[in-house]
Amino acid sequence: MHIAVEPSILYIGTPVVLVSTRNADGSSNLAPMSSAWWLGWNCMLGLGAKGHTAQNLLRERECVLNLPSDAMVHHVDRLAKLTGSDPVPPHKQSMGYRHHKDKFGISGLTEQSSESVMAVRVAECPLQMEAVLEQVHDFGHRPDKAPGALAFEVRIVRMHAAPSLLVPGRDNHIDPDRWRPLMMSFCRFYGLSGELSNSTLASIPEEAYRPVPHMKR
Q1: How far is CA 100 from the centre of its chain?
Q2: Residue-by-residue pLDDT tens, the chain, 217 positions
Q3: First and final CA of the chain: distance in angstroms?
Q4: pTM for the complete prediction?
Q5: Where does the chain have alpha helices with state H?
Q6: 149 and 164 in contact (C-beta within 8 Å)?
Q7: Residue 210 contacts by C-beta under 8 Å, 6 or more apart in sequence?
């Protein structure tokens, strides 16, 4: 029998994404987040409106979505409670955040040039998606308070994958048995435990989902 509950957060379980953006001075910012979902070659990102990544996205209108594997959990955790904002916003100060500009250095990760955007990729991430901003929407509407977050719709214009993730002999097909994403559920890190069952949807050829040409800026 179910009971009514009111969790403080509804992070049921989504992949961790390292979002890389360009700062106003041309340097790189890197931020972990997990409020992301994909449909076709577009992705929705949920970010605090006053955060450094959100401000960079609004100004530069591009980013890279770097997906770490579960083996990278300690690199990702080094970025927790850090912000590129200086001064640190009050709500983040209250949660113990501190300013740190060199996110790549402190995480032990490596910058890698992109091909279609100015924001850099994370070399260690097995999947990297260069993206451009298409739409921005206020998010978090409620009767007693103005929205404090933004929903960014980005379009993937170039994707890179580690060759070890591909199905042998099929250059555009990622093998889910080889891909081990880092997941976040209720602010805790998890991995995948393996395939549970055959899927009826998996019988549809993957190419059937390919959208019309989408990679133009």
Answers
A1: 20
A2: 997 788 887 878 899 999 999 999 999 999 999 999 999 999 999 999 999 999 999 999 999 999 999 999 999 999 988 888 878 878 777 778 888 889 999 999 999 999 999 999 999 999 999 999 999 999 999 888 899 999 999 999 999 999 999 999 988 899 999 999 999 998 889 999 876 667 666 776 777 767 666 666 6
A3: 51
A4: 0.90
A5: 52-60, 73-77, 90-93, 103-107
A6: no
A7: none
